[in-house]
Amino acid sequence: MSHIATQYDLCQQTDTSAYIDGELDAASSVLFEDHVKSCASCAATLTAQKRLLCLLDDAMSEPRRGGTASAMGLALPKNFAKVVTARAQSDMSGVREPREHKRALLLSVALAASAFALLGASSFGAAFAPAASLAGATGCVVSVVGRFATDAVSTLALILRAAGGHFLIDPLPIRSFTWLLLVAGVALLLRMITSYHRTRASE
After folding, report:
1. Which spans in 62-97 are helix H?
2. Within a 10 A sphere around the Cβ of 46, how many other Cβ atoms?
3. Are residues 115 and 165 in the same domain?
4. Quick one: 68 and 117 in the same domain?
5. pTM, rounded to two decimals
6. Residue 150 has what DSSP assignment?
7. What spatial distance separates the first Cα and last Cα of the chain, rounded to whole Å?
8. Cα 169 to Cα 26: distance, rounded to the nearest angstrom
9. 130 shares its domain with 188
């Protein structure tokens, strides 16, 4: 049981990539080589990584006509390295300071606010012009109706005050005829008032 635990700990401590890259010291390299001889899993991992490195070395060392050969048989353009280098040099988004990002954000907000102020001032009136026109028309109609009702009530009260005594003492046929004339006169008067206010509203 202790042997299995010791071997497991050794597998956990071994670094195949460090061994291949030559980063282990002499003692660690000897310990790793001894462990690989007795551990099939670590030996398979080491073999797989060595094969991968060999494939990469072969892909980079076999130039083809018109480009650089790859392990998958795909030809890269001749200026591939130059293009990658130029893009890496021009892409500075990862090395910009937070202060520069904040300054760029504030500048964008200021430009957007300026554009809204310049365009919004001229389009604000055009956007709310129909509502203002409707409100004006509604106010004009309300004003005409109010004046019409006031004039009608005043006229009717004046007529009733002037002819009120006759309605009490005159006979029924005369009172009926008087009422008919009164209604016709009030209707005609209301029509004249309506025409007058309508003419003023149109002007």
Report:
1. 80-90
2. 19
3. yes
4. no
5. 0.29
6. H
7. 110
8. 141
9. yes
Distance CA 72, CA 127 (A): 62
Nearest to 8 by CA among 35, 43, 45, 37: 35
Structural domain of 186 = 98-202
Sequence-separated (6 or more) residues with CB below 8 Å from residue 190: 148, 152
Residue 89 has pLDDT above 80, yes or no: no
CA distances from 168 to 15, 135, 162, 164, 183 (A): 125, 48, 13, 7, 18
- Structural domain ending residue among the three candidates 58, 90, 122: 90
* Sign of the CA dihedral with 156 first, then 159, 161, and 167 last: negative
**pLDDT score of 90 more than 80:** no
Token pair recorded at residue 82: 């130059």
Distance CA 18, CA 16 (A): 5
Mean pLDDT calculated for residue range 172-188: 71
pLDDT, tens digit (0-9, with 9 covering 90-100), for 96-154: 566 777 888 888 888 888 777 776 655 656 656 676 777 777 777 677 667 767 776 67
Reading the block at residue 146, the tokens are 């109010």
Look-up of token digits 């005594």: 165
